[in-house]
Design a protein that fits this description.
This protein is an alpha+beta fold. The protein has a domain of 167 residues: Porin (Beta Barrel). Helix content is 26%, strand content 29%. Strands 1, 2, 3, 4, 5, 6, 7, 8, 9, 10, 11, 12 and 13 form a 13-stranded mixed β-sheet that branches. The chain is elongated and about 195 Å long.
Length: 356
């Protein structure tokens, strides 16, 4: 290690002497950046031949002629090792930012729980409708009716011994599909649900009594509305005679009227409830859609002889009481006034007073 230091010192001294001779003082050294390890090895390898030239026991000769071989090589190596060796700047490696992929959040909405189907509510009350039939040849509206109707049917179910029930309202927009205006028999037919259901009212007139009445009411129902029914064809039900009244008089009943219907199938039963009812047949007005004077339902259906008989009985009773009173007054005036102190048989006076 000591020899190495001596060699380096001699090489530096020799180089300084040669550089100080002039000629090269104006030339700037070429700077070569070398890694530290390479520069150290190069300087060591260049220093060894310079030591062999100079030698440890000889003084350096001052020669006016520079030796280019020994001057150029040590100058470059000396300058590089002493002044130009620099530690390279640390390399900063910038790591790229990681690629961030945003995954969209999927919100799964739970399926709603199935709700039970609510049971059908009660059938609402029917709406009143107005219908009429006009004879096209005479232009006379012979039949005019208005009512709200609801039909209740009981029927046998298919392959069971149980019964089914169905409610059906006659719609207010039912169509008049048939009718006639004969002198003693008139008819009006309504239809709805594409002709699957019909209602027919038949009226008869009596020229002798000058009255008319509802002779029959027929209803035909399609079996499709009868759920699980064992019936395969239309159901027909009817009602007999009702509501006799004088001609040129309408029949009116605001209260609910229930009609029991008869079916051609014995296992079927039905009732028809009519409300806000008013009807008139055998009319003679031309295109007049207003009713004649109405006869109310209930007591108005009694025969005319009943109220007449009751009135006559009441009148006769009043006459009898009046005659008895006048006769008693006459007898009292004929006998004169009796003293309150005189003994009187009350029974005798009572019998005498009333002629008993």
């Amino acid at each position: 290690m000591g020899y190495l230091k001596v060699y380096i010192f001699l090489a530096v001294t020799c180089s300084s002497v040669i550089i100080g001779q002039g000629g090269l003082t104006t030339k700037k050294p070429d700077l070569i950046d070398l890694p530290t390890s390479v520069a150290s090895l190069k300087s060591i390898s260049d220093a060894v031949p310079s030591v062999d030239v100079i030698g440890p026991s000889h003084e350096p000769q001052k020669s006016p002629s520079p030796q280019p071989d020994t001057t150029t090589t040590p100058t470059t190596s000396t300058t590089t090792s002493t002044t130009t060796t620099s530690t390279p700047a640390p390399t900063t490696t910038t790591e790229p930012a990681p690629n961030t992929t945003t995954v969209p959040t999927t919100t799964v909405t739970p399926a709603p729980e199935p709700k039970p189907t609510p049971a059908p509510g009660p059938l609402p009350r029917p709406t009143q409708g107005t219908w009429y039939y006009t004879d096209q040849s005479t232009n006379v509206t012979c039949i005019l009716v208005q009512f709200a109707a609801q039909l209740n049917i009981t029927y046998p179910k298919n392959n069971t011994s149980s019964l089914g029930y169905a409610l059906l309202n006659v719609p207010a927009n039912a169509s008049v599909v048939d009718g006639n205006c004969n002198t003693t028999s008139q008819r009006l037919t309504l239809s709805w649900a594409d002709g699957n259901h019909t209602l027919t009212m038949h009226f008869l007139a009596n020229d002798t009594t000058k009255t008319y009445h509802l002779n029959s009411l027929n209803i035909t129902i399609s079996p499709e509305i009868l759920i699980n029914s064992s019936l395969s064809r239309s159901v027909e039900v009817w009602h007999g005679a009702e509501w006799a009244m004088p001609l040129n008089t309408s029949y009116r009943c605001a209260a609910d009227t229930q009609l029991n219907l008869t079916a051609e199938v014995t296992s079927v039963a039905a009732t028809l409830t009519l409300s806000q009812l008013q009807e008139e047949a055998f009319r003679t007005q031309h295109n007049n859609n207003s009713f004649s004077s109405a006869r109310e339902c209930g007591s108005a259906d009694l025969p005319d002889a009943v109220p007449i008989a009751v009135g006559c009985a009441l009148g006769g009773l009043v006459v009898v009481v009046l005659i008895a009173y006048l006769e008693g007054r006459r007898r009292s005036a004929a006998r004169g006034y009796l003293s309150m102190d005189s003994p009187i048989d009350p029974r005798y006076d009572y019998q005498e007073l009333f002629g008993l």
